[in-house]
Write a structure and sequence with these properties.
The complex is a heterodimer of chains A (about 325) and B (about 500).
Chain A: H1 2-23, E1 31-35, H2 42-56, E2 64-68, H3 75-83, E3 90-95, H4 97-104, E4 116-124, E5 126-131, H5 139-148, E6 154-157, H6 163-175, E7 180-183, H7 187-195, E8 201-204, H8 206-214, E9 218-224, E10 250-256, H9 262-276, H10 279-287, E11 295-296, H11 297-317
Parallel strand pairs in A: 1-2, 1-3, 6-7, 6-8
Antiparallel strand pairs in A: 3-10, 4-10, 4-11, 5-8, 5-9
Chain B: H1 2-14, H2 17-35, H3 41-52, H4 57-74, H5 76-82, H6 91-102, H7 106-140, H8 144-161, H9 166-180, E1 183-184, E2 191-192, H10 206-225, H11 238-241, H12 245-250, H13 252-267, H14 273-287, H15 300-323, H16 329-340, H17 349-352, H18 354-375, H19 378-383, H20 390-409, H21 413-430, H22 436-458, H23 465-468, H24 470-502
Antiparallel strand pairs in B: 1-2
Classes of the chains: A alpha/beta (about 325), B mainly alpha (about 500).
Chain lengths: ~325, ~500
């Protein structure tokens, strides 16, 4: 009797356990969180912030470790992630450059769509700013002036594939105005060029420009965002200012090694969703003036596909040599 | 008056026991990081950042800044002893520092580096205290044409660096400029000279080139010399391990030059410690009564660059604290740290967060004293390393070089490059090509090309922009003068020789 009961209980246990272990995934060793920048770069700080929250809130059964793979924009990191094909313990911090590098570099042959997109975590809004003593009160003023003297007005920014250049290309295309784009490698040099009066306008993160605006040195004339930021309720978005251009989101998200099992993708999707619910994350989003709309794996993957096409067209128009 | 009361308030913050402790820990960590090639202050600050989240912002920034300026003290150690630059800003220190070590003056060179660091570090902080806001505004008037002119000035000084053969010096320089152009072009996002190697898309790491050409090249030549390779002399007795009065006297101008050059170039958002150390060395050589002795182990050749890279830290904090503009890797992370603590660096920081602003400034006076006390006693200790027999010393140098090159990027690919540049350094030594111009060309190449192309984009392809702007025109003028002086000199010599021969 007892024996039979035990057997039955055991059988039931086995029956219950089998489907669970087949469906659910639990990491069994340290999770590698790959970052394409060196220690201290924007995405490194972002990844470490995520890591700290996961650690403090005990959202993962195993440790997660940030692994820096800098070099060639995102190419070194992407190659590393692809070399870990099928490994459910390798994820990476994704940003727009992961899409752009394969479009522009022959040697960068790992597209993010071929990896396992997990979630989009934030979209970074931006502000178009001019110096406080500038004659341009609105984006319209700037564009009118650019039409009158084609090529004379200047804007500072990053490389040809950066969001600020993409927005410029779109604005120039819809309005017919033309102005110069001057690349600087660091954010500090871009803003210094504007403050020093060497360029006329720039598109910049609100966290970088906020203090200059508050001190009355810079004036925001438009927001590169779908909706107005809480910190700048009086500044119109580009569309509100009357310029219908495609939205160009600057994204950060998480992407896994290629062929990651569906259960593992689900696990990470759920873990990062929990991260976004924590007060520590909410505070980070608020302090850095980010848009923290969570986008799940399936939707994120579909978006990457269409967005790549948009970027390819824009980069071609910008005069970049698109290789894929 | 406002400054005096601010500074007084700052010392009240910085002298709180906990903050003194954080300052000490930061300086100690910085010294260690500086000594280790490949482990830079930027990476260390980033790794420690999560630990500081729970700290009070003043204490946190005091510690992080300690790491930043402390690393500049330690950076000279391996440059002088082993010809391995600890940081990119200590590359120039190798030129005369290592030669001093070979002459048995390693201790003196280390001592001079520490003293120059202290003097210039303090001058940099005084500059930061007294004239930060106006200097920051002046620094903004620098843009691409001015940077281009500054780089030209640097390159003109390279001609002075090039030793006996101008042709060999220029060839070496051109090679350095070419290596700098490897990688993704900023403006067009096109890959250049990558030979199908994806790891080259990001360009060649500076530390790989410097360590390969200097350290590996040197060891290879010494190995070839075999039994003839002399063990470096290390004098006995503490007194002989520290700089003597004569050496200190020779450095008087270098202390001043390093302090001012370093601070001013440090204030520029596109400047940096590496460029300022090269320019201070060039100025020192140009102004010297015996420029031909540079590169053979003159103390002022150590004092000028080591001073400049320390004064640079005070300078780099000027745009960070008054404008919220970081000028390099370390200051960029310090900026994000401040933001995470809820302190907003920018034009209003002095009013909004006086504790953090003035506390940090005051702590840097304390930190520089701490670093001097920490570093001087280490000098005799480190100098003993050279007593190691060659069969231990050479493997140690190889080991440190490999760790340094790998640590900078974490890529095995870079070790292959290190071997390549090591062999190049060896071959150049064998064929009597100077290696310093190669390194300078590499340092300046990227920024120089960028500045020129930016200038042309700003002026709609009009080269006149370079001479129409007063600051840029002045610097270009000085560069031309510097290039002409030796020409007149050699013309003069040839004329004198011709006269005597005919006479």
């Amino acid at each position: 009797m007892t024996k039979r009961r035990l057997l039955l209980a055991a059988a039931l246990l086995v029956a219950a356990a089998v489907p669970v272990s087949a469906q659910q995934f639990k990491p069994t060793r340290t999770i590698e969180f790959v970052v394409h920048g060196g220690p201290g770069s924007g995405n490194d700080v972002f990844a470490r912030t995520l890591n700290t929250i996961i650690d403090q809130e005990k959202l993962s059964p195993v440790r997660m470790q940030v692994v820096n793979k800098p070099g060639g924009g995102s190419t070194t990191a992407a190659a590393y992630v692809v070399s870990k094909k099928g490994d459910p313990h390798v994820i990476a911090c994704f940003t727009n450059i992961w899409l752009i590098d394969p479009l522009l570099q022959q040697a960068a042959n790992n597209r993010p769509q071929d990896m396992s997109p997990i979630a989009r975590l934030v979209v970074e809004p931006a502000l178009a700013v001019v110096r406080a003593d500038s004659p341009f009160k609105t984006l319209g003023d700037f564009i009118d002036a650019a039409k009158q003297k084609p090529g004379a007005l200047k804007m500072s920014g990053g490389s040809i594939g950066s969001r600020e250049n993409v927005v410029r290309q779109l604005l120039m295309k819809t309005t017919g105005a033309r102005w110069a784009f001057i690349s600087f490698p660091s954010g500090g040099e871009r803003i210094a060029a504007l403050l020093g009066g060497h360029v006329d306008m720039m598109i910049v993160d609100p966290s970088e420009a906020g203090e200059q605006v508050r001190a009355g040195k810079l004036r925001p004339i438009a927001q590169v965002s779908d909706r107005r930021l809480p910190g700048f309720p009086d500044v119109p978005t580009i569309r509100e200012a009357g310029f219908e251009i495609t939205n160009v989101p600057q994204m950060r998200g998480v992407i896994g090694a290629p062929n990651m099992p569906a259960a593992a993708i689900e696990f990470y999707e759920d873990m990062f969703l929990k991260v976004t619910k924590t007060p520590a994350w909410q505070k980070f989003i608020h302090d850095s003036e980010l848009d923290g709309e969570f986008v799940k794996a399936a939707e994120f993957k579909a978006f990457l596909g269409t967005f790549e096409g948009t970027l390819r067209e824009i980069l071609k128009e910008a005069g970049a040599k698109v290789v894929r | 008056m406002e400054i005096a009361s601010g500074l007084l308030h700052g010392f009240a913050v910085a002298l709180q026991p906990y903050n003194v402790l954080w300052c000490f820990i930061g300086c100690l960590l910085g010294t260690i990081v500086g000594i280790m090639p490949g482990l830079g202050p930027a990476a260390t600050i980033a790794l420690l950042l999560p630990l500081t989240f729970k700290m009070d912002p003043a204490g946190g920034i005091i510690m992080l800044a300690g790491i930043y300026y402390g690393a500049k003290y330690g950076g000279s150690t391996t440059s002088i002893l082993l010809n391995i630059p600890g940081e990119s800003s200590s590359v120039v220190t190798c030129l005369d520092g290592y030669q001093m070590a070979r002459k048995g003056r390693a201790g003196a060179a280390l001592g001079i580096a520490a003293i120059a660091s202290f003097v210039a570090g303090t001058v940099g902080v005084i500059g930061l205290t007294l004239i930060a806001p106006p200097v920051a505004v002046f620094a903004l008037s620098f843009s691409s044409p001015e940077y281009f002119a500054l780089m030209c000035l640097g390159l003109a000084l390279v001609v002075l660096l090039s030793g006996t053969s101008l042709t060999k010096g220029l060839l070496s320089l051109l090679f350095g400029l070419w290596v700098a152009s490897i990688g993704t072009d900023l403006f067009t996002a096109q890959a250049r000279f990558i030979f199908g190697q994806a790891p080259l898309l990001g360009g060649v790491d500076f530390m790989v080139v410097a360590i390969g050409v200097f350290a590996i090249g040197e060891v290879l030549s010494s190995i070839e010399a075999g039994d003839d390779a002399e063990v470096l002399p290390v004098p006995r007795g503490i007194r002989n391990l520290l700089p003597n009065m004569e050496e200190l006297k020779a450095c008087r101008f270098a202390f001043l030059n390093g302090s001012i050059t370093g601070f001013l170039i440090g204030c520029l958002p596109g400047g940096g410690a590496t460029i300022s150390s090269f320019i201070a060395y060039g100025i020192e050589k140009a102004a010297s009564k015996h420029p031909e002795k540079f590169g053979t182990g003159v103390p002022e050749g150590v004092a000028a660059p080591e001073g400049a890279n320390n004064a640079d830290t005070g300078g780099a904090l000027v745009p960070l604290l008054t404008l919220g503009i970081p000028s390099g890797g370390s200051t960029a992370i310090m900026l994000s740290a401040l933001v995470l603590w809820g302190v907003k660096p920018g034009p209003l920081m002095m009013q909004d967060s006086p504790d953090v602003f003035w506390g940090l400034v005051a702590s840097m006076y304390i930190g520089n004293v701490v670093l001097l006390i920490l570093n001087l006693p280490l000098v005799p200790l480190f100098a003993q390393i050279l007593r190691l027999p060659v069969f231990i010393l050479f493997p140690v140098i190889f080991g440190i070089s490999i760790v340094g090159a790998y640590g900078a990027s974490g890529r095995i690919f870079d070790l292959g490059l290190l071997v390549g540049f090591g062999l190049l350094g060896y071959a150049m030594g064998k064929l009597k090509y100077p290696t310093a111009p190669l390194i300078l060309g590499f340092v300046l190449g990227n920024s120089m090309e960028r500045a020129l192309r930016q200038s042309l984009m700003m002026s709609q392809n009009d080269l006149m922009v370079l001479v129409q702007r007063p600051i840029s025109a002045c610097m270009l003028g000085i560069a031309v003068l510097i290039l002409l002086i030796p020409l007149f000199g050699s013309f003069n010599k040839a004329r004198v020789r011709a006269i005597t021969e005919n006479g």
